[in-house]
Amino acid sequence: MLASEDGKELWVLKWSILEIKHMYRRLNLVAGMLAILSAGMVIGCKTQQGKLEFVSPGNESRILKGEKVEVRLKFPNPLVDSVVYSVDGDVFERKTDTTAVVFDSDTHGYGNIRLSAKVYAQGKEDIAYREVTVVPPAARTYAFEVIGTFPHDQGAFTQGLYWDQGNLFETTGQMGESTLRKVDLSTGKVLQKADMASDEFGEGMTVVGDKMYVLTWQNNKGHVYDKNSFRLLKSFEYQNSKEGWGLTHDGKRFIKSDGSNKLYFLDPATLAETGSISVFDENGPVDSLNELEYIEGKVYANLYYGDRDEVVIIDPLSGAVEGRINFVGLYSENRAPYDNEMNGIAYKADSGTLLVTGKHWTKIFEVRINER
Ligand SMILES: [Ca+2]
User: Fold this and answer.
1) Residues 300 and 312 sit within 8 Å (Cβ to Cβ)
2) Which CATH number does the domain housing residue 267 bear?
3) N or C: which end of the chain has fewer CB within 10 A?
4) CB-based contact 325:369 (threshold 8 Å)
């Protein structure tokens, strides 16, 4: 037997062996956990590598209308039973292999679309999506020449402008200040004026026959007036359009804007909304469509973009912006950053010219549009 001193040493030795065993177990545990983690990472990588996904077209890419686009996917497993390709839920191709297919963008209108590919393999389904935008070809740029300059009431917050056989009609906005006007073009003199209700903000306007059709901005309704007496005849409500911005008439129906990239079509008699079209140019949606004028089959629209002074020419059948007129430089007198926007287009059919002005502008310009 060892002395008590030695016994103590033996106990310390036993304790140390126990510690080492514990440490060994702990190390084993850590190693085991590391092994599980790394295995998990490998599995994770494998899952990611094996995800069904679109290769072409690229995400959020713009497709020129008419373009035939290759639709190609990366398949986790090349052994498929079938692949069903759809656009916004409508099937356009079915395959029993993984080769690429073609999406014909001519079969679709302008705007955002969602392509999908649903894969059936070994009794399982998988699906992948891709968002793209179908856009029209680049709009043409038009130049303008100034034919005449006329005075304009600087107090007029112009919202609607229409030339009716020698008479210029105008609507103005601002709460408590909104008016309907008949104006003498050559002198700028207001010949006739009527106030709108104090809780209404006047907006776009057009004249058809002996009636004047006027929008309010946010009261969700428009009014029909007798164009000679300015007497209120009736009112109509908006439906899907959010607000009242611009209004014109194509000879068959009204066309209305609400500040978005949509043009709404209104029944000529009831003024109920019968449909709409979204407006796009080569870069995507064109919003802030403001005062409108229908001219020879196209809709001319002011854009509400500060001092950008741009008018776009829209094909109302497709929604494509076909032309663009840059009016920057036409009016630069003491321009304020807000409430001084170009707004107001009236077509003089007899001369083929346009009358254009803006909010609080001191002038109305008669311009001829020329192709550049
Ligand atoms: Ca107009």
Assistant:
1) yes
2) 2.130.10.10
3) N
4) yes
For residue 113, the CA-to-ligand 1 centroid distance in Å is 32
Q: From CA 275, how far away is CA 67, in angstroms rounded? A: 27
Q: Domain range holding 156? A: 140-371
**Average pLDDT per 10 consecutive residues for the chain, totaling 372 residues:** 47 51 56 50 48 95 95 95 97 97 93 96 95 96 97 98 96 98 98 98 98 98 98 98 98 98 97 97 96 98 92 97 96 89 96 97 97 70
Stated pTM of the model:
0.82
Cα of 284 vs centre of ligand 1, distance in Å, is 25
Assess if residue 324 is contained within a domain. Answer: yes
Q: For residues 94 and 134, what is the distance between their CA atoms, to the nearest angstrom?
A: 22
Query: Contact 255/294 with Cβ under 8 angstroms?
Result: yes
Contact 141, 322 (CB under 8 A): no
Tell me whether strands 280-281 and 262-266 are parallel, antiparallel or unpaired.
Answer: unpaired
Q: Are residue 336 and residue 320 in the same domain, yes or no? A: yes
d(CA 333, CA 339): 14
Taking the centre of ligand 1 as the mean of its atom positions, its distance from the CA of residue 160, in whole angstroms, is: 5
**204 neighbors 246 (Cβ within 8 angstroms):** yes
- Ligand 1 center from residue 300 Cα (angstroms): 8
One domain, residues 197 and 290: yes
What one-character DSSP code corresponds to residue 107?
Answer: G
- Which structure tokens are listed for 15? 């304790």
Cα(143)–Cα(326) distance, rounded to whole angstroms? 7
Provide the b/e sequence for 305-319 (b: ≥16 CB within 10 Å): eebebbbbbbbbebb
Cα-based distances in Å from 193 to 205, 344, 350: 14, 18, 26
Residues flanking ion ligand 1, Cβ below 5 Å: 161, 293, 345
Interval 221-234: pLDDT, tens? 999 999 999 999 99
State the distance from the centre of ligand 1 to the C-alpha of 134, rounded, in angstroms. Answer: 29
Ligand 1 centroid, distance to 138 Cα (angstroms): 25
